[in-house]
Amino acid sequence: MRDIQGRMSSEAPSPTSRSQRLVVEPAVGRRDFLTREDDADLVVVGGGLSGTCAAITAARAGLRVVLIQDRPVLGGNSSSEVRLWILGATAHMSNNNRFAREGGVLDEILVENMYRNRDGNPVVFDTILLEKVVEEPGITLLLNTAMIDVRMADGDVDGSRRIAGVSAFCSQNSTRYEITAPYFVDSSGDGALGFLAGAAFRMGAEASSEFGEKFAPSTEYGDLLGHSIYFYSKDVGHPVRFVPPSYALDDLSEIPRARSFNANEDGCRLWWIEWGGRLDTVHETETIKWRLWQVVYGVWNHLKNSGEFPDAANLTLEWVGTIPGKRESRRFEGLYMLCQDDVLGQAQHPDAVAFGGWSIDLHPADGVFSERPGCNQLHGRGTYQIPYRCLVSRDVENLFLAGRLTSVSHVAFGSTRVMATGSHCGQAVATAAALCVRDGVRPADLLEPARMAELQRWLLRGSQHIPQHALEDPEDLARSASIVASSELRLGTLPRAGDPLPLDIDRGQLLPLEAGPVPRFGLKVRVAAPTTLRVQLRRGARPDDYTPDRLIGECALELEVGEQVVQVDLDAVLTEPSYTALCLLANPDVAVAASDLVVTGLVPLRHVKDQEPDDAIGQPGLEFWVPVRRPEGRNLALTLDPPVLVGPASAVANGLDRPTGAANAWIAAPEDEAPTLRLTWDEPQTIGRVELRLDTDSDHAMESALWTHPEDAMPQCVRDFTISANGRVLAKVGGHHQSAYRLTLAEPVRTSELTIAVEGVNGHAPAALFSVRCYRDPEHRIVRDGASVVAAPSVAGR
Q1: Cis before residue 245, ω within 30 degrees of 0?
Q2: What is this structure's pTM?
């Protein structure tokens, strides 16, 4: 990490620098703060999760980055100051968005947090974010530093406007910073940079007529989402007295939902302790915070002193947030504005660079004081694309937008506002900035089709998933290799283990099937009384659509009392390879055998709820068939006749790093004791870099704080492996748990063969790899040998 704040220096101060004993300064008319100047390729204003991911992504692409954060820690709402768990398209695994965890740097952070911090300690999460930043030598991190001014470039002949530099001030070291750069990212939440730069923005809700949005709120509902403040409680093992501060709310009758309070939920679960949507959520944030403090301390007084909660006697108030978690303020106008139809219609965009999948989640402006439900959520049938045009200011030509301030309508904002989605966009604009620096062009110039294709290619190379896009990489030598494996999973059996699962609800198994007649399925069931079990095979509208509302086949099985193996003949044909759901409809007299084997691309499901259609608000009708979290989440014990090939070796070169319409992975047979993948070429190749993409279960939400998780490393992830070329060991890796592995060779090798031998997996799962990529060039940077500040984009781009 570069340093202009006097931190993280690799050299200790000299003895003379410590010997200063006394400073005497005579009186003067006035003094200025110490000022330091710096320049960079990219300035990121705002060190929340989106800004942090943007800075790391840009630095790894070769840029010199200054990251300005006005708080003492990174992460924004995900930090220990607010303590909200990170979430995005996985949506707590509560809808039909399968394999939807965001990729790239964000995925790396979440997987690492899971490995070190599966109990969700937000202080530990702080350290992980900080570590990721300080490990990047291209980043200058300015903590406790607020951007306070913007310098615009002198007027251009064509009337274009751009930022020349920013001023920032750190109250902790009384230093002013003057920083120049050709490109800027506003990820400040409230849009401080865009605001001072004069960029067009919106605040509040658009009328339904502007974008034809049926879910647009009424004035009575309110035009803005409010803030929340969280709190922790702790059982100390003895009675604890609580005397409330004088400003605590003493009449909870003002809070309609007070009757649902209990002593078992920390305030971090009480997200609906929210208020402020009728105020200016930028300039009146302190007012909102004080009102929320009144509510929190009033709630705690009620729990401790009302006499209604004897189980709260030994609880102490461990922590209360000092800053509110803010949901909404300014949204800036870009080259396109995402709206309700884009989200629910899963619109396809030629400039797609990210995706979302959280419900359209709007809250009443009166928050905790409202008689209305705490939120109204409108789910789509799957994830949706976010176009690059939403991430580029239409007014300020060198300004990128990231986080919750991007160019979307208020309704669409109800979905895009969540942290993982905003961070995914931050990664996209950071990669775009690197291409702009390299070529000296404006952000808008990347919309040219060839440039956009290159941007998308670089994003996909970095595991930034984009729905409906596969990596077409002419530089990847693996694409021209012959690929064979010691075994390939032909799924014929998921072995039985443990207790059977009661069919107290509809249960299912998500399976990738080949085109043609569907196999015969075998199930072992335990039957308490003679009954009829209904079985259906369903699929979605596309091979990678996991809303199973297309019936392919069904049958009714007549069952007798006792344990028995039954055969399911559905007499159905698939016209294309596709994910399907084998659905066993609820029957209280039946339990079905389950399997402890975890397999890449297979997901156990249960039908938990329905979303009723409502044309008045544009709400589609959906059945939710959602996964079951491990350890309870176990696949159904099945036989398939004939077996289905789900893990071909060739999948590692198809350009997809997660399941989509297929498992998209080489999966070894479970009985293979020495799983090995081998790439060969007719002619020797020069290889300087090898990249692997492994399975860390992109269906797992990996909430970062407060949630506890049963695993630190995902059971599907290959742990120990060896990479060799023509018998020469290039790398021997142990204890791996991340989604990506990159081998950079000090000296490129000349070889006609590359072998990956798997020696261990983190759990009870067959070995699997999504991708193997081989490159001549050991560098993985867009800008080489350190970036240099290019000419102003308004000049260089013409």
Answers
A1: no
A2: 0.96
